[in-house]
Structures are given as structure tokens and as C-alpha cells.
């Protein structure tokens, strides 16, 4: 369970996040949605400790990440997996080396255990034969899958995905969404996905948080998304022709 | 001034919360290959020609018949060991190694690879930069020793082929009034230059924000700032060690 309380963040005079509260449950794929520039990625970065918020708390199963000492933070970080928007694979390492990198750095496992675990994760994302290839030799969709494999290699309790579908064709996007959803169910991970992709919302969103101009305007079950009564959210989802037609 | 302050704070992050030493060993060896072996050709080429030019130009300017010809070799030797090999080689290395470090780290920053390390709880600055600094400090002196030797050899080849000095006179000049401290001085300078080039370039690259344009700008700043730091440190060290 991840709880965020009163997260605020400003860059200079511009307030990007204005007192965001919320909860993300284990086994659920929670989506943070909103238009461009509404603070979704900043909120994610505050949650994973890449940006320090001005105020607020981020609690991982009750442990306050922001006030923890360095060792506690490291322990919490080891329970996190992050899929970055651009996959963030290390260019100088092969696919297999990328996936086993967290094992090399953060565990004392034997060489064979690391290779087996990395191969297992690659198999889970359907890339068991791509281990020897360099990131520059694989497609965008494959990079995302490698990113997912790297994110789950340490058996995380919390999985964060920043725009997992950006730059992908619709078919590949659906496959990535399904993979994230399956992994969440399989490992009972608390998954938080940042997206503005309507297909993702319909496909994998179980809990949805809507941000608008740095404020949380709505959070709820995906089945109640179209009945929120929030004008800004309705405008956002009705921008998609498919949703408009479904509503009719 | 705030930029200089940030640079010193950045240096502190290289040595705090380091990873296991075994992690660095492999990385340092890789960097030694990339920084050291990868720079041999350019450093060798530049220094052979610099030695050759120094020899021919000194001969051209030495018109007084009372000055013995072996002085040409002495000038080539001292200028190569004291100044040309360490300083000029390091300026060349600032262009090659410095820009490489800045663009590599800058690209890692804008493609979120640095963030990926941070979220794993790895001290990204120490993991990425410390091996480069150590490899530079280890490899630059070796390159400079080779550079000084090749500059003197370049002078010998050019001088004898152009007929401005005989082989015997050149060797006599190399042996005349030799002060071994010159080599120590050159190596001290090189270690300082290596540290400055690697850390300044890393600082520029690591703190990039934006896109490809900013990475290019950081790479340019890395080279120009490194060159400025080299000449300033050169003056300070010469004052301190040779006077």
C-alpha cells in the first residue's frame, strides 16, 4: 500500500502540485491521469524520490520515505521497480546485462542465480532470445518489455510506470498494458501508472486518480470514471472519440 | 561563483555512499581502456609533430654561430618534458576525453539512465564518474610519458632529416644539463590536469537538463572550461614547483 499525503511542489513561482493526497492498493493497477503539464510525472518523481516535494509524506506500507534515513530509503528503493518513459536501458550493456544489473548491484547472489533470474524475467516478458542484443538493436516495444523485466527482477512490492505506451503503436501498447496488468496480479504488486492514454484507462485501470492543474480533482474506481460529475474529467475523457461513441 | 560552489559540492558526492570496491574495479579497467588506450594514437601523432616543429623552428631561430647546435636538442627536451607533453597533451585530451565524458553523462541524464540508477538506490555520480576520474589520473601520466618520448623522437627525426642538427649533436643535447625533477614536475602537473579534466567534464555532463542541444553545449563547455582550468593550474603549479 502506498499513501501520499499533502504533496506540494513548486518550481520557482509556479506551483506544479497543490496538496495531493491518495492511496494505491496492492494488487491494483492504479492510474494517474491528466493532460500534459498537470504534474503527473512530477508526482511520480516525488513518490520515487527523484524530486523532493516541498511538503507532504509518501508512505510505503506505513514507512515514511521522505523522512527515512539513507539505509531505510535504500531498503524501500529495493522494493521498487520503475519503468521509465524512454525505458532508460543502459546503452553500453546487453539486454541480459540490463536486466541483471539490479541483481549485480544490490544482491549477493551467485553468477548462475543472477543469470537464471534475469532469464526468467526476460522469459516472462517474452524476450528470452533477446538477451545478447544491445538496446540499440531492439524496437521501442521490446525496450519497454526489457524495462519491465528489469523493474521486476528484484521482485518489487511497488511498480511505477511512467507513460508506458508513449511512442508505441496501438497493438504494442495493448500488449504492454496487458503485461503490466498480468504482472500486477501475478505478484500482487502495488502498481502506479502515469498515462494520458485512454486505451490504457479502459484496459488496465482499476483505480484512477485525475490531476488537473496540479490538483487532484477525482479518484475512484474505473467503472465510475464516466459518472464522476467532474467537468474537467469529463472533458478529458470525452476528447477521445471512442469514449464518446461508447457513451452514446 | 555559485557554479564553482556547485562543482565542489559535486566533488563531495563522488566519494560519499560509494558502492562496493569490487564494483569499481571492473569499471576502472574499462575506463582505462577507453580513456588510455583509446587516446594513444592522437596523443602520439600530435606529440611527434610538436617535437618535430619545435626542433625545426628552434634551429631556424638559432642563427648565432656561437650557440652550439646541441642547444636545439636541449630546448626540444626541456620544452617537451616541462610544457609541451603534459600541457598540450592534456589540452588534446580535454578535447577527446573531456567531451566524451560530458556527452556520455549528458546523454545518460536526458535518457533517464541516471534516474534509473538513483531509483535503485545507487549513488549515480559515484558509480558513473569515480571510475572515470581514477582511470584518467592513472592513464594520463602514462600517456604523457609516451608523449614526451615521442616529441623528443619527433625532434630527432625532423632535425636529422632536415639536416639542421646531426644525430650525435642531438643526443649530446639531450644529455646536457639534465634535471630529473623536470619529469616529476610534468607528472605532478599531469595528475592535476587529469583530475580537472575528468571532474569538470563530468560536472558539465552530469548536470545537463533538456535535450540534444544542451548535451552539445555541455560538451563544448566541458572542453573550454577544462582548457581554462589547465592553463590556470599550469601557471599556479609552475609558480609553486619551479620557483
UniProtKB/TrEMBL annotation, chain A:
Domain of life: Bacteria
Protein species of origin: Spirosoma fluviale
InterPro entries: AAA+_ATPase, ABC_transporter-like_ATP-bd, ABC_transporter-like_CS, P-loop_NTPase
PANTHER family: INTERMEMBRANE PHOSPHOLIPID TRANSPORT SYSTEM ATP-BINDING PROTEIN MLAF, PROTEIN TRIGALACTOSYLDIACYLGLYCEROL 3, CHLOROPLASTIC
One Pfam family here: ABC_tran
Keyword Acyltransferase on entry: no
SUPFAM superfamilies recorded: P-loop containing nucleoside triphosphate hydrolases
Protein name: Phospholipid/cholesterol/gamma-HCH transport system ATP-binding protein
Alphabetical UniProt keywords: ATP-binding, Nucleotide-binding, Transport
UniProt GO MF annotations: ATP binding; ATP hydrolysis activity
Keyword DNA-binding: no
Family matches, as SMART domains: AAA
UniProtKB/TrEMBL annotation, chain B:
Cellular component GO terms, alphabetical: ATP-binding cassette (ABC) transporter complex
Domain of life: Bacteria
Pfam families, per the entry: MlaE (PF02405)
Membrane-spanning residues: 21-50, 133-159, 180-203, 223-242
Keywords tagged on the record: Membrane, Transmembrane, Transmembrane helix
InterPro entries: Permease_MalE
Coiled-coil boundaries: none
GO molecular-function term, one example from the UniProt record: phospholipid transporter activity
Protein name, entry field: Phospholipid/cholesterol/gamma-HCH transport system permease protein
Amino acid at each position: 500500500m502506498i499513501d501520499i499525503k499533502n504533496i506540494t511542489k513548486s518550481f520557482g513561482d509556479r506551483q506544479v502540485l497543490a496538496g495531493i493526497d491518495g492511496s494505491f492498493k496492492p494488487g491494483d493497477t492504479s492510474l494517474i491521469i491528466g493532460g500534459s503539464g498537470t504534474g503527473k510525472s512530477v508526482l511520480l518523481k516525488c513518490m520515487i524520490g527523484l524530486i523532493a516535494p516541498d511538503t507532504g509524506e509518501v508512505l510505503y506500507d506505513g514507512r515514511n520515505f521522505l523522512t527515512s534515513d539513507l539505509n531505510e530509503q535504500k531498503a524501500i528503493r529495493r522494493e521498487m521497480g520503475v519503468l521509465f518513459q524512454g525505458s532508460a536501458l543502459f546503452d553500453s550493456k546487453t539486454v541480459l546485462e540490463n536486466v541483471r544489473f539490479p541483481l549485480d548491484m544490490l544482491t549477493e547472489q551467485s553468477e548462475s542465480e543472477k543469470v537464471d533470474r534475469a532469464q526468467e524475467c526476460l522469459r516472462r516478458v517474452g524476450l528470452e532470445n533477446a538477451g545478447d542484443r544491445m538496446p540499440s538493436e531492439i524496437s521501442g516495444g521490446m525496450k519497454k518489455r526489457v524495462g519491465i523485466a528489469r523493474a521486476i527482477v528484484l521482485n518489487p512490492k511497488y511498480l511505477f510506470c511512467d507513460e508506458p505506451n508513449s511512442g508505441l503503436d496501438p497493438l504494442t501498447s495493448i500488449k504492454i498494458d496487458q503485461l503490466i496488468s498480468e504482472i500486477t496480479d501475478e505478484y500482487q504488486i502495488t502498481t502506479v501508472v502515469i498515462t494520458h492514454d485512454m486505451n490504457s484507462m479502459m484496459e488496465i485501470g482499476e483505480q484512477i486518480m485525475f490531476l488537473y492543474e496540479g490538483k487532484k480533482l477525482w479518484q475512484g474506481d474505473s467503472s465510475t470514471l464516466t459518472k464522476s460529475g467532474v467537468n474537467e474529467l469529463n472533458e478529458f475523457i470525452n476528447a477521445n472519440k471512442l469514449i464518446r461513441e461508447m457513451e452514446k | 561563483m555559485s557554479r564553482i560552489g556547485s562543482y565542489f559540492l559535486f566533488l563531495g558526492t563522488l566519494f560519499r555512499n560509494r558502492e562496493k570496491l569490487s564494483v569499481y574495479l571492473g569499471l576502472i579497467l574499462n575506463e582505462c581502456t577507453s580513456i588510455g588506450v583509446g587516446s594513444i594514437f592522437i596523443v602520439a601523432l600530435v606529440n611527434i609533430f610538436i617535437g618535430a616543429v619545435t626542433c625545426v623552428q628552434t634551429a631556424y631561430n638559432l642563427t648565432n654561430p656561437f650557440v652550439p647546435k646541441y642547444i636545439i636538442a636541449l630546448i626540444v627536451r626541456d620544452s617537451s618534458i616541462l610544457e609541451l607533453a603534459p600541457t598540450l597533451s592534456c589540452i588534446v585530451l580535454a578535447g577527446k576525453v573531456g567531451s566524451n565524458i560530458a556527452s556520455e553523462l549528458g546523454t545518460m541524464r536526458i535518457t533517464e539512465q541516471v534516474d534509473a540508477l538513483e531509483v535503485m538506490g545507487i549513488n549515480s555520480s559515484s558509480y558513473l564518474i569515480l571510475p572515470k576520474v581514477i582511470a584518467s589520473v592513472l592513464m594520463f601520466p602514462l600517456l604523457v610519458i609516451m608523449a614526451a618520448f615521442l616529441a623528443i623522437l619527433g625532434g630527432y627525426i625532423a632535425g636529422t632529416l632536415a639536416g639542421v642538427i646531426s644525430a650525435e649533436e642531438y643526443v649530446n643535447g639531450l644529455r646536457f644539463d639534465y634535471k630529473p625533477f623536470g619529469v616529476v614536475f610534468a607528472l605532478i602537473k599531469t595528475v592535476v590536469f587529469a583530475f580537472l579534466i575528468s571532474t569538470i567534464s563530468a560536472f558539465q555532463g552530469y548536470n545537463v537538463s533538456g535535450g540534444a542541444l544542451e548535451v552539445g553545449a555541455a560538451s563544448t563547455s566541458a572542453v573550454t572550461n577544462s582548457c581554462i582550468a589547465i592553463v590556470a593550474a599550469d601557471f599556479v603549479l609552475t609558480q609553486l614547483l619551479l620557483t
